Amino acid sequence: MAKRIVIDPITRIEGHLKIEVEIDEGKVVNARSSGTMLRGFEIILKGRDPRDAQHLTQRICGVCPASHAMAASLNLDSAFGVKPPENARIMRNLVLGSNYLQSHILHFYHLAALDYVKGPELAPFIPRYKGDYRLPDDLNKACVDHYLKALEIRRKCHEMLAIFGGKMPCHMTFCPGGITESPTPDKITNFLWRLKEIQSFINDVYIPDVLAVAKAYADYFAVGVGCGNLLCYGVFDLDQEGTKKLLYRGIYTDGKLGSLDTEKINEYVKYSWYEDKTDGLNPKHGETLPAPKKKDGYSWLKSPRYEGKVYETGPLARMVISYLQNEPTVKKMIDEVLAEFKADMGVLFSVLGRHAARALDCKFIADSMESWLLQLKPDEPTYTSCEVPEQGTGMGLTEGPRGALGHWITIKDKKIDRYQVITPTNWNASPRDSKRQLGPIEQALMEAPVKDPANPFSIVRIVRSFDPCLACSVHLLTPKGKSLGKFRVG
Ligand code: NI
Q1: pTM
Q2: How much distance in Å is there from the Cα of 42 to the middle of ligand 1?
Q3: Phi and psi torsions of 23, nearest 5°
Q4: What separation in Å is there between the alpha carbon of 381 and the centre of ligand 1?
């Protein structure tokens, strides 16, 4: 008989996620991923001045506010019909880039590493599931030291962000038309020396640690495969037209690369706590009508789908889509890693593939930021003047550390009439859609090996490989029905 495990909440992620799995003969046979809170920012934004959007939407999340600021600013630029100057494009990229580096280092050392590295038997390292720890003692000890060093490096990332953002979290300087900060020579220098130290940490510590974990746990190259389809909006504009990006836009469907058309994005709510009449809408027409008592509902996340299909987003999608479009640096980095493991691209669709992709994403962005910094022109403008239009529509697509992030706006009488946000975790942690297709994390959990239902460490390894971020407004539920156990994961 199948046994049911409920992990609620999954800790060492951002926000509140409940995972339920059924296990039969040592394998997962059913999985449900539930976002246990209502974000509701769409409702808060209605009727407000559009120029507040980049400030308010940053409050969706204290970990990745810079991505919301970027998506909102691009959204407003498009609705206002304004083109920010080159300095603004570059400084926005540097702020977002700083947040990426912080977030990826946070994810590996402070959220995921304790699944693979045996921490000391004291807080904050306990309580936790007992993993099958396999690192040799000296390497394990080095990783624990790096856990502490990573805290210091993350602080440097925040300081770096604050140079052009004012503060972190929820920086102050992005606005439609540009940025309110100026690139003075002392700010450029201050940014550069911090970046150099962070780059050394990524190259000499983070990348080697990820590869060492991958070698010790190589079976996780075959665990947590997921849906296999990938989606990336592209990120870090390298020109003023927004056509050239550091990481490329695209989709990867059933083994083939394709181009992205946002008209093909729809959000389904059959199993989400929203009114059924909002099922299947494109986000530019999206509605957020909560229905907390809905019988079939099991999540506050809607289910975004592309052409009705399930897509994973995140560093894995960014790396694979740029790799297949022959972005030279990405191609070289991925080929080197695959050669080291004598493997082909297929192994990337896994728990370890996601960790490796995230580390390479981090390195690529850090290495690129230095050249952006040197393109700043201290005496040139950072802002193009603009006015709130009487009415209009906009769209802002970017990538947060965790994947594709889109903001959509409709302005009426100079006020926000409609605002819709689809976050990366909306894609990855989505529940079933109206065709009963499982979301990406749910699919990745299927067939996962669970030897001991009282210690389901493989489940949390899979979920954490996606680096889910469920924003922070508490609305916890108690699991209904009989469950085998309810766990707090340390
Ligand atoms: Ni977030």
Answers
A1: 0.94
A2: 16
A3: -120, 135
A4: 31
